Amino acid sequence: MLHTAWKGTLSFGSIDIPIRLHIATEDQEIKLRSLHKECLTPIKYEKRCPSCEKDVDAGDIVKGYELEDGRFVVISTEELQEVRRPFENKDISMDHFIELNEVDPLYFGKSYYISPQETGERPYAILQQALLDTNKAGIAVVFLHSRQQVVLVRALEDVLIMHTLYFPEEIRDVENVPNLGDQLVDSQHKELAGKIINEMTQPFTPNHFHNQYRDSLKDLVEDKLAEGQVVSPKEPTKQSNVKNLMTALKMSIDSPPTAKPKRKTSPKKVSRPSS
């Protein structure tokens, strides 16, 4: 059973379908931790303030927008929530539909399976079949994972799929790609390249591809396990205050003594000889 990443309503026209979103892809890369070479202890990445020279927790952190000169505009949690509030609805409202082939794959982001909740099975099935038959997709705007996103809803076999789309300003301008000068291509070379492409064309078969690098890395890990090449990190030593005290004492001994202010003395009374 897939984990539910989001719950809400998928709507078009006057029809509302209670739905759940499930992340459609997963990263199956073999995770490698960074270890200290000397003692093989996992490296920690701590939140630390370099100015105060101390660790900070979540309650000590605020958001800030950085300016070009290195200054910041600080935004409090309350202010951020106030900006989000008008957009934080749980409705994926498809206000129009498009031909599926109109969207360039460059715009596609993350993919989610859509499942109906208990009361939405029938309208879900109707929408899924209609999108499949017409080869169309619905477009909507939704607030998902703390950001507003344009999404595309389409049918695939027996399920609805939602794809997040990048906004146009998030797509980098192709004019910034280097070395794309105007090259004259003669018709003979273009025709030859076209023939080669047509001869090499075949249906897309996802199962044809396999992550060979991941398999090789997995084999290496399993070989090392079979050979007993397994290590345990050293237990972290308790921080002792003796070293700090010794350092402070040494600094105190090595530093030149501060001159003590001279004590004022009252002048001695001179006894006058008696006449």
Order of strands in the sheet with the most strands? 7-1-2-9-12-11-10-8
Helix tally? 5
User: Rg to the nearest angstrom?
Assistant: 34 Å
CATH fold label of the domain at 6-25 and 88-171: Ku70, Chain: A, Domain 2
Task: Give the total of beta strands.
Answer: 12
Provide the helix percentage. Answer: 10-25%
What is the straight-line distance between the termini? Answer: 120 Å
Subunit structure: Homodimer. Interacts with LigD.
Family: Belongs to the prokaryotic Ku family.
GO molecular function: double-stranded DNA binding
Biased composition (Basic residues): 260-275
Blueprint (SSEs and pairs):
Elements: E1 6-12, E2 15-23, E3 48-49, E4 54-55, E5 63-66, E6 72-75, H1 77-84, E7 91-93, E8 96-99, E9 108-116, H2 121-134, E10 136-144, E11 147-156, E12 159-165, H3 187-199, H4 212-226, H5 242-254
Parallel strand pairs: 1-7
Antiparallel strand pairs: 1-2, 2-9, 3-4, 5-6, 8-10, 9-12, 10-11, 11-12
Would you mind describing this structure in some detail?
With 275 residues, this protein is of the alpha+beta class. It has a domain at 6-25 and 88-171: Ku70, Chain: A, Domain 2 (Beta Barrel). It is 23% helix and 25% strand. The protein has five helices and twelve strands. It has helices at 77-84, 121-134, 187-199, 212-226, 242-254; strands at 6-12, 15-23, 48-49, 54-55, 63-66, 72-75, 91-93, 96-99, 108-116, 136-144, 147-156, 159-165. The strands form three sheets. It has an eight-stranded mixed sheet with strand order 7-1-2-9-12-11-10-8. The protein has a two-stranded antiparallel sheet with strand order 3-4. The termini are far apart.
